[in-house]
């Protein structure tokens, strides 16, 4: 069936370093992906999205890369800060808002 | 603050009971979504409404129902509650139906004892 999955449940980085969070998907027809951030006690927060007609998209300190050949996407966070500590989810958008979420990667930023 | 308001924030009830969770979407958003987050299942899509009409359904149990009212607020009704229904229930809203950019509320934590 359809699924998106993250490679690592946890990731620990030093403040100021770059973080890379990976995600794989199974359906080669999937064409729209989104990254969300969830801080403790809060709801998921949209970070960035990418459609399959793009390989890369940049936001403020974040970059999403999409490799359709190997069905893989990644979220890169530049100069990671303590405020970036959260659980990060990749999601596939199925039918306009029906998001299929991966399990999440917990990012910890060490000062 | 996402602009999406959910009440109550916490709810403790017993098995077999019925509860109603309420959601007010962001001003101007016509689409409302309900998601369930639990440790074993993760974040799961339940149901979507657009301007009062049901638009998409996910893994929502028959014991659960939802509706969106003319003022666009939405309610999720959970009945015959079981221990396994204990979870965080999130409401989200969006302006368009074809977007993955949803604005989530802070959730309602349901504990069934």
Describe the structure.
The complex is a heterodimer of chains A (111) and B (113). With 111 residues, chain A is an all-beta fold. Helix content of chain A is 0%, strand content 55%. Chain A contains no helices and 11 strands. In chain A, the strands form 2 sheets. In chain A, strands 2, 4, 5, 9, 10 and 11 form a 6-stranded mixed β-sheet that branches. In chain A, strands 1-3-8-7-6 form a 5-stranded antiparallel β-sheet, with no helix packed on it. The radius of gyration of chain A is 13 Å and the shape is globular. With 113 residues, chain B is mostly beta strands. Chain B is 0% helix and 53% strand. In chain B, the strands form 2 sheets. In chain B, strands 2, 4, 5, 6, 9, 10 and 11 form a 7-stranded mixed β-sheet that branches. Chain B starts with a strand and ends with a strand. The mean pLDDT of chain B is 96. The A-B interface holds A 32-34, 41-46, 49, 89, 91, 93, 95-104 and B 2, 4, 31, 33, 35, 42-45, 48, 55-56, 58, 90, 92, 94, 96-107.
Question: Key features?
Answer:
heterodimer; A: 111 residues; mainly beta; 6-stranded mixed beta sheet; 5-stranded antiparallel beta sheet; globular; B: 113 residues; 7-stranded mixed beta sheet; 4-stranded antiparallel beta sheet
Structural class of chain A: mainly beta
Sum up the overall morphology of chain A in one term. Answer: globular
Q: Pick out the low-confidence regions of chain A.
A: none
Computed CA radius of gyration of chain B, to the nearest angstrom: 13 Å
| Mean pLDDT, all residues of chain A | 93
User: What oligomeric state best describes the polypeptide chains here?
Assistant: heterodimer
The sequence of SSEs of chain B as H and E is EEEEEEEEEEE
Chains forming the largest contact: A-B, 23 and 28 residues
Percent of residues in β-strands of chain B = over 45%
Compute the average pLDDT of chain B. 96
Helix content of chain A: under 10%
Q: Shape of chain B, please?
A: globular
| Classification by helices and strands of chain B | mainly beta
Count of individual beta strands of chain B: 11
Largest sheet of chain A: 6 strands, mixed
Q: Indicate the low-confidence ranges of chain B by residue numbers.
A: none
Bin the helical content of chain B.
under 10%
Q: How many DSSP H or I helices of chain A?
A: 0
